[in-house]
Write a structure and sequence with these properties.
Four Helix Bundle (Hemerythrin (Met), subunit A); 131 residues; 0% strand; mainly alpha; globular
Length: 131
């Protein structure tokens, strides 16, 4: 068996185990981490001149942010939730623009915004599952 293929399979199984055992709070953290990773990888693809790779990675980042949007409690209609929804929409639009223009500056902008949201989320203590 190809060692790289074996490593990818091992990583995939490890990631699936993490997801199956994660709390909802941790799942959101994992989505944000994944979004930041895909944006960084897309920036690397731009630097290497890998246009197809850039497009795939930015599309994945857009999908992750879309997933974060779907997790919002929009029924609540709190101002904060609506503002976060609008921020996610803005990030998705900027990522699409970064893809069209092959612009790493736009990727940095979205990465900074997502990192700020993640820092706030990380500051919220995960609910104790015992209660």
């Amino acid at each position: 068996m190809n060692p790289m293929l074996a490593l990818r399979q091992y990583q995939k199984i490890g990631a699936q185990a993490q997801v199956s055992e994660a709390s909802p709070h941790r799942l959101v953290q994992m989505l944000m981490e994944g979004g930041l990773d895909r944006i960084a990888q897309a920036k690397g693809a731009i630097e290497r001149g890998d246009v197809p790779g850039k497009g795939v990675l930015i599309s994945k980042a857009i999908g992750i942010i879309g997933g974060l949007r779907e997790g919002l409690d929009l029924e609540n209609r709190a101002d904060e939730v609506e503002q976060l929804d609008n921020l996610y929409i803005y990030m998705m639009k900027r990522l699409a623009e970064a893809n069209i223009k092959t612009d790493p500056v736009l990727l940095d902008e979205v990465s900074d915004l997502l990192r700020t949201v993640k820092d706030g989320w990380d500051g919220i203590a995960a609910p104790d599952p015992q209660f």
